[in-house]
User: What shape does this take?
Amino acid sequence: EAGVTQSPTHLIKTRGQQATLRCSPISGHTSVYWYQQALGLGLQFLLWYDEGEERNRGNFPPRFSGRQFPNYSSELNVNALELEDSALYLCASSPPAEIKQYFGPGTRLTVT
Amino acid sequence: RKEVEQDPGPFNVPEGATVAFNCTYSNSASQSFFWYRQDCRKEPKLLMSVYSSGNEDGRFTAQLNRASQYISLLIRDSKLSDSATYLCVVRYMDSNYQLIWGAGTKLIIKP
Assistant: This one.
């Protein structure tokens, strides 16, 4: 069974640009979670999508947004990039009504 | 105060030793608990769930102390491959499936 996939693996942007990160959950999983992990820090919850709707949002500014598509894949958009947005962005998925999350390999975003 | 707190370490432990670390949580309504493992520059992977009565998986033992609001992870006969960051994860009853993550404890096993 294929795991959670994320693309791209690495992304380099300059300050002020926009970044789009993509995630495909495990087949049968309906929930997708996005996390930010800055170097040396813990996971910071960004967004949770389930059945195409945003269910919860972490303490991040509105320039962090996303969506979930009918096939349950998801996209994270970060507008007006700032240097401190440089981090590993992790996507996780879970099946319906299950707590455990299964992570993708992440997208490493570098803002210069 | 952070909702989930862990000693960041690093814990430097000789191979074959036993090591234990704790994680404290602030919300007494916490319902579910997990330990995840994260290797350097990799994604977190579920190590084990933590059950109220405590549970064991090979060399790993997890325990929950609701009265004192902490969970623990014990690793026996540590291997070099156990070197990683161990993340404590908590779910509250009112968080609608959202997990709260600790910042992790770094473990380094030395030969």
